[in-house]
Amino acid sequence: MAEGQTKSIHEGRIKWYSEKKGFGFITSEEFGDVFLHRSGVKKFGYFGFQQDDPVTFQVKDGPKGKQAFDVKPVKST
Q1: pLDDT digit string (tens) for 23-68?
Q2: Is the whole model's pTM more than 0.85, yes or no?
Q3: So what's the pLDDT on residue 47?
């Protein structure tokens, strides 16, 4: 695992995400707002982010603070 990465999986919700710009933010109780870049999204077929969608993610230290990676949608039952 690279330096600055956490192994644990966290839960949050999409605060906002722009498909056009390729980035947005996840909000979580543990970290507050976490930057999300399209490169951090795990592909599970088509998954377009909508505001307030639940997701799981891991965190690493990015150039401007916490950054989400291994982002996955939480499947509703």
Answers
A1: 999 999 999 999 999 999 887 655 678 999 999 999 999 888 999 9
A2: no
A3: 61
The whole-angstrom distance between residue 58's C-alpha and the CA centroid of its chain comes to 7
Task: From residue 47, give the alpha-carbon distance in Å to each of 5, 32, 63, 72.
Answer: 24, 23, 26, 9
Q: So where are the chain's domains? A: 10-73
**C-alpha pair distances (Å), 42 with each of 23, 32:** 14, 21
Q: How far apart are CA 16 and CA 23, in angstroms?
A: 9
Cβ contact 26:74 at 8 Å: no
CB atoms within 10 A of CB 42: 13
- The type of residue at 77 is T
Q: Which CATH class is domain 10-73?
A: mainly beta
Question: What Rg do the C-alpha atoms of the chain give, in angstroms?
Answer: 12
